[in-house]
């Protein structure tokens, strides 16, 4: 029986009963031998379940290889793997996901990590230097994975083409940079680039080059797991002759990444026997003959692609290139490099719901699979293999026929993201024509994803036979295909059955178009691929900024200073702390919502290997509340809910399993049994809450998250805003429109999941290293949970691997759990959430529904807006007040209304509590403002940009929130930005070209649009109070301790620049240390894009005090070091602290960051897929503190917003369970979802009158410019709808997934009725 295998990797076979091999003919060795960074490693009987990643981190202590997802979906853990290829006798080096590679499978291999190619002490590698100097590392958590993927590429080809470099990163995610600087930096290694030829590969061990493989057998006495690696079929037969249901065959171990999404049980169950078949000669090799291509079962997908694209294969048939192109869309470079093609087939054999691309396209091609059943070998088609009842099957090889001379083979795929995404639907079509007349002789139509298993659409194929591919045949075939799909339609809730059917029918139509030799020009774009990475041209981008040389090095282009050690893996993150001394904790979270917990049984878990304890509420020495300091509504959330409690949502913490290893802890946590009384009605969405009236209106007297949290009171929703101004003349003739716009949620998907290490010491003292944005708040919560004073607890944040608001409060869940466990066991306890668990427990951006009524005159000038916004905070209100406040106070965006009324509401659901996420509330609110403007424009028959500009604020006008535009330091640059970007980006000319393109193309459409953003900054004492401690040492070196947390935003670099500038010290003399509550107490949290400037100002203030002390020793002839030495000789104490708290402002807010953006997109009308062709951003950051950091923040923030808009979708089923968890279902943007051309400019010569050194905030404002993409997509949809005579305005909710776009195209139109072949 085949068992849990990923889309793109290994396959396994289960056979009959197992006992130990007889050992009569084969000698089995129990020692594993491999090399890491040229160092030999020999291990006796390694555990079969231990991964390379866990071994590197927990045994070897090479922590530069980080844990991102544990399923091969993010590329963070990428390392290089080299081994001697038995066929060519040459070293083959490939990138792999170390989280998927079993340690046992490394025999004879050389593993290279980022620490092995360069470091600070011996010098950085050219690749590490390039990504650091190129501004390609922000939080840095993903950087080593990018480095090692690039290293693997250049080790194979040190002078690659630009195309090869560009297309190498489908398996690496980054949440911070927006990818543009990474692609630019690595692109310089391509032919003609600045770094071309600079790569140097480290040598391989001589012993590896002469290594001879042996038959291996390892045993783990604790787990009763075994590992075999036979090198001959004789050895394999010896094992299988005693086989049992517990055997699993392995080729490269990529099975563990995806299979868990298709089965209930955890991988790596005790008693499993693993058999590594990767070295069996009979399963290797590829050869080509006149009939087709013959390929062994263990050949990797990447190797198969290479053979299909060979000149010899291309001469034989063009079909092989079609297959190769589709295979490049399977998984990622890392997985294709080692995962076998047979794994894809065998996974869908075991799990029919898995829409295997390999199964679909090989079935369509008529491939014959050669399999071993017992002692005989049989030939089967792929559909026959997938439905074969006999479980004793071993795939030996496949033959892919070349097809007939008059045949056509085409394959298609639609997915949520452009690369590294499983198919929503895939289709393969093979059509053999009888003669030149075009009559169909035979056909195969295979469809994956639309049904509960791979569909062999035989009735559809029958509809083609004996007929020509004309319009009538298309109608017959379409009807047949719909009927076949509906007979066994997929019940996957992530996409609708209607959309899956539309995709299949659209692909069938495309197949007909491909068969036409005289295809009309207007239809050609339907069959021209523009979505896959290989179809994209090389992406480009520009950056433009000005500098203020008077404050050097402030405002200059200085990449993040820790980027080099981030690239080399030497930078330490909270998830790296604990070493061999700490135990691992994994949270046991609830699996039911709104149900009473009646029993919790951990007996089975406690018997599992390595498990120490199950920590529950009774172990808490203090208060069993996560956010106790806040009081009020927050008191509902317990650290650990207890038996007898009504559990509010799926994802509530019930306890903590503590074990020796991360894997042991998680496996045991999943085995804790939960029993519930029958669940009550589960409210899973805003719509449910509105229907059931679970709504709370805005309270009076509330404030943002800052004030309410610091004062320990219940956060209140902001008051209703009702600005009752004077209506314009002729108001009786005003037009009025109503609408309801729904904006979805978003997961933070920070690269480092919630991580903490708690160490008890000195009796009742606590050292807490946490991935944290608000160490002071964490300290408060731990004080309450442990029942100790705050001064007993030091919370330290060395850096965080991303945060985006998710670690302002939600970090306290893990911190409190780990602290309770450490207190109970009196030893260090560390926690790092598994990716899908993290996404279930920690909810992200809130969904918000905007119901509006707007009035306006015939010119499009708005008069009034009445806006109701319903925000969903999850099961309790918590810190929703801050997000709601931002949603309210940003809702005017750049537009003046005579009357303006906004009423916020909160809708409680039985889902995890949401929490702030980058541009919380306001990104959606600004988007809603643009939705309203577009509605007005469509109604009056004007372009959206005309109506937008018509309604801009004018200087001297006042916003509903008390800001005087253009007065009291509140500068107003939107008109300048608006005019300049249209000129710089040639908007008018491009609009004409888009119009021309749409007139010439029926099934692809383009759209272009512009949008503005006003991002207000309220630098109040409640929200931003920041401290700094600056110490100057005798050698002239400077150490700054700050109250802000470095979470990737470059805060420490900006502080260093400001410190160096103020002191007049060389930048390389300044270092910024970790955030520690023992050094800077009571600091406000890091968030809202304002902490960098406030922390920098605190450092400036401290430096100004030091300058007073140094002034007597300054001399134009003295160096900085001499000045310091002179002061130290006089025993001057060169350390100073300062506290920044802004209290003086004339406006309601201090200032606003402004931005404008122009976006151009292209959509596939038949699938809804979208490609962002170009984006131009022009931002007013005043005088930026650091050009590199701020440009990077703009790029990264915008691409995160792009993900929110296009690829990221949160869905909750009726039970309250998140459907899109982990990297398999949740899709942040990849490097191939960013704009093909991405230009970012900063407005020059426009200092902020009230900003720190003339600066403004940078990251979150850029996210509010994303409506330009929304409007561009909508314009493209309008163009598609116009083809069927429909021009009416329509509402378009977010996210704009391919399904949403396709549905909008078809709303009120008959898309299929427009199918024509001529």
Features:
1318 residues; alpha+beta; 8-stranded mixed sheet; 6-stranded mixed sheet; disordered N terminus; 44 strands; 28% helix; 39 helices
Q: C-alpha Rg, in Å?
A: 31 Å
Total strands: 44
Number of helices in the DSSP assignment: 39
The fraction of residues in strands falls at 15-25%
Structural features, described:
The structure is a single chain. This protein is α+β, with helices and mostly antiparallel strands. The protein is 28% helix and 22% strand. The radius of gyration is 31 Å and the shape is globular. The longest helix is centred in the C-terminal third of the chain and has 20 residues, at 1091-1110. The protein has an eight-stranded mixed β-sheet, with helices on both faces. The chain starts with 30 loop residues before the first strand and ends in a 12-residue tail after the last helix. Residues 1-21 and 699-715 have low confidence and may be disordered. The protein contains 39 helices and 44 strands.
């Amino acid at each position: 029986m085949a068992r849990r295998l990923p889309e793109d990797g290994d396959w396994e076979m289960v056979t009959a009963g197992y006992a130990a091999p007889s050992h009569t003919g084969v000698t089995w060795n129990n020692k594993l031998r491999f090399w890491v960074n040229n160092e030999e490693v020999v291990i006796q009987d390694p555990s079969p379940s231990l991964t390379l990643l866990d071994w590197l981190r927990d045994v070897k202590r090479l922590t530069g290889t980080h844990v991102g997802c544990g399923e091969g979906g993010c590329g963070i853990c990428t390392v290089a793997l080299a081994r001697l290829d038995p066929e060519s006798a040459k070293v083959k080096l490939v990138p792999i996901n170390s989280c998927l590679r079993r340690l046992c499978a490394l025999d004879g291999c050389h593993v290279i990590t980022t620490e092995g190619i360069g470091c600070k002490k011996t010098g950085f590698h050219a690749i590490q230097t390039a990504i650091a100097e190129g501004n390609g590392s922000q939080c840095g958590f993903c950087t080593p994975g990018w480095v090692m993927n690039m290293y693997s590429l250049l080790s194979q080809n040190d002078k690659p083409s630009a195309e090869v470099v560009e297309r190498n990163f489908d398996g690496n995610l980054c949440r911070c940079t927006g990818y543009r600087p990474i692609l630019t930096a690595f692109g310089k290694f391509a032919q003609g680039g600045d770094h071309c030829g600079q790569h140097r590969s480290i040598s391989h061990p001589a012993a590896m080059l002469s290594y001879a493989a042996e038959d291996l057998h390892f045993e783990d006495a604790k787990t009763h797991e075994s590992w075999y690696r036979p090198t001959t079929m004789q050895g394999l037969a010896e094992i299988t002759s005693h086989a049992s249901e517990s055997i699993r065959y392995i080729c490269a171990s990529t099975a563990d990444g995806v299979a868990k999404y298709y089965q209930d049980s955890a991988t790596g169950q005790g008693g499993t026997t693993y058999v590594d078949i990767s070295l069996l000669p009979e399963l290797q090799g590829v050869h080509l003959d006149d009939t087709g291509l013959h390929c062994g079962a263990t050949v990797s997908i990447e190797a198969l692609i290479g053979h299909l694209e060979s000149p010899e294969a291309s001469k034989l048939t063009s079909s092989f290139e079609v297959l190769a192109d589709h295979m490049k869309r399977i998984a990622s470079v890392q997985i294709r490099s080692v995962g076998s093609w047979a794994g894809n087939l065998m996974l869908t054999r075991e799990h029919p719901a898995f829409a295997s691309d390999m199964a679909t396209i090989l079935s369509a091609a008529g491939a014959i699979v050669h399999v071993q059943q017992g002692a005989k070998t049989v030939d089967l088609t792929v559909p026959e293999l997938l439905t074969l009842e006999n479980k004793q099957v071993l795939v030996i090889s496949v033959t892919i026929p070349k097809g007939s001379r008059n045949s056509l083979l085409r394959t298609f795929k639609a997915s949520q993201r452009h690369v590294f995404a499983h198919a929503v639907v895939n289709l393969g079509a093979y059509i053999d024509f009888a003669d030149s007349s075009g009559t169909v002789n035979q056909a195969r139509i295979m469809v994956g994803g639309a049904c509960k298993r791979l569909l062999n659409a035989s009735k559809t194929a029958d509809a083609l036979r004996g007929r020509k591919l004309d319009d009538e045949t298309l109608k017959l075939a379409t009807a047949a295909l719909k009927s076949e799909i509906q007979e066994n339609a997929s019940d996957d809730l992530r996409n609708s059955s209607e959309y899956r059917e539309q995709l299949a029918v659209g692909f069938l139509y495309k197949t007909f178009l491909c068969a036409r030799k005289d295809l009309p020009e207007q239809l050609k774009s339907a069959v021209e691929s523009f979505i896959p990475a290989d179809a994209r041209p090389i992406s480009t981008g520009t950056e433009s900024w000005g500098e203020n040389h008077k404050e050097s090095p402030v405002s200059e282009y200085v990449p993040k200073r820790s980027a080099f050690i981030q690239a080399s893996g030497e930078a330490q993150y909270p998830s790296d702390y604990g070493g061999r001394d700490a135990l691992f904790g994994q949270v046991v979270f609830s699996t039911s919502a709104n149900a009473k917990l009646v029993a919790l049984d951990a007996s089975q878990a406690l018997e599992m290997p390595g498990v120490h304890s199950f920590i529950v509420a009774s172990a808490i020495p203090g208060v069993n509340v996560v956010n106790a300091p806040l009081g009020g509504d927050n008191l509902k959330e317990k650290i650990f809910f207890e038996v007898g409690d009504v559990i509010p949502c799926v994802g509530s913490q019930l306890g903590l399993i503590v074990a020796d290893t991360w894997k042991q802890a998680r496996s045991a946590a999943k085995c804790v049994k939960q029993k519930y009384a029958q669940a009550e009605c589960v409210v899973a969405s805003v719509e449910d809450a509105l229907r059931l009236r679970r709504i709370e209106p805005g309270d009076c007297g509330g404030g943002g998250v800052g004030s309410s949290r610091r004062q320990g009171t219940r956060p209140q929703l902001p008051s209703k805003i009702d600005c009752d101004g004077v209506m314009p003349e002729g108001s009786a003739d005003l037009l009025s429109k109503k609408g309801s716009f729904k904006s979805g949620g978003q997961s933070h998907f920070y690269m480092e999941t919630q991580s903490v290490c708690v160490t008890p010491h000195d009796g009742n003292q606590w050292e807490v290293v946490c991935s944290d944005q608000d160490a002071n708040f964490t300290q408060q919560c731990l004080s309450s949970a442990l029942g100790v004073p705050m001064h007993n607890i030091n919370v330290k944040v060395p850096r965080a691997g991303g945060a985006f608001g998710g670690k302002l409060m939600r970090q306290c869940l893990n911190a409190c759990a780990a602290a309770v466990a450490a207190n109970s066991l009196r030893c260090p306890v560390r926690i790092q959430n598994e990716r899908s668990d993290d996404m279930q427990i920690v909810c992200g951006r809130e969904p918000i529904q905007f119901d509006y009524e707007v009035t306006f005159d015939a010119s499009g000038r708005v008069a009034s807006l009445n806006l109701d916004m319903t925000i969903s905070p999850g099961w309790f209100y918590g810190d929703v007040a801050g997000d709601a406040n931002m949603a309210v106070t940003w809702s005017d965006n750049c537009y003046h209304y005579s009357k303006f009324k906004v009423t916020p509401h909160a809708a409680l659901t039985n889902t995890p509590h949401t929490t702030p996420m980058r541009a919380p509330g306001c990104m959606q609110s600004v988007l809603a403002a643009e939705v309203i403007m577009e509605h007005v424009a469509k109604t009056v028959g004007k372009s959206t940009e005309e109506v937008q500009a018509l309604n801009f604020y004018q200087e001297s006008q006042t916003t509903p929130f008390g800001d005087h535009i253009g007065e009291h330091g509140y500068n107003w640059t939107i008109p300048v930005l608006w005019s300049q970007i249209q000129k710089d980006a040639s908007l008018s000319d491009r609009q004409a070209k888009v119009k021309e393109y749409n007139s010439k193309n029926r099934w692809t459409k383009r759209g272009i649009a512009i949008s503005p953003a006003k991002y207000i900054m309220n630098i109040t004492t409640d929200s931003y109070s920041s401290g700094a401690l600056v110490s100057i040492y005798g050698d002239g070196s400077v150490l700054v301790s700050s109250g802000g947390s470095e979470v990737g935003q470059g805060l420490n670099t900006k502080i260093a620049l400001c410190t160096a500038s103020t002191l007049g010290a060389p930048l390389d003399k300044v270092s910024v240390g970790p955030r520690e509550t023992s050094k800077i107490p009571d600091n406000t949290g890091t968030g809202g894009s304002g902490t960098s400037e406030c922390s920098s100002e605190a450092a400036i203030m401290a430096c100004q005090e030091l300058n007073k002390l140094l002034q007597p020793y300054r001399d134009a002839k003295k160096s900085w070091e001499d000045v310091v030495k002179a002061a130290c000789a006089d025993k001057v104490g060169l350390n100073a602290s300062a506290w920044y708290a802004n209290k003086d402002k004339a406006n309601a807010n201090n200032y606003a960051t402004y931005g404008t953006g122009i976006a151009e997109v292209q959509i596939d009308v038949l699938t809804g897929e979208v490609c962002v062709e170009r984006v131009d951003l022009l931002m007013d950051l005043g005088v930026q503190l650091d050009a590199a950091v701020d440009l990077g923040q703009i790029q990264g923030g915008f691409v995160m917003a792009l993900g929110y808009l296009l690829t990221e979708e949160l869905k909750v089923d009726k039970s309250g369970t998140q459907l899109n968890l982990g990297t398999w279902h949740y899709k942040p943007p990849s490097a191939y979802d960013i704009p093909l051309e991405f230009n970012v400019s900063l407005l020059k010569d426009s200092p902020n009158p009230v900003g720190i050194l003339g600066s403004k905030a940078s990251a979150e404002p850029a996210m509010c410019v994303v409506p330009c993409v929304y409007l561009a997509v909508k314009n493209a949809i309008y163009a598609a709808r116009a083809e069927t005579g429909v021009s009416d305005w329509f509402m378009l909710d977010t996210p704009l997934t391919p399904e949403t776009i396709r549905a909008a195209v078809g709303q009120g139109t008959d898309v299929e009725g427009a199918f024509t072949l001529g």
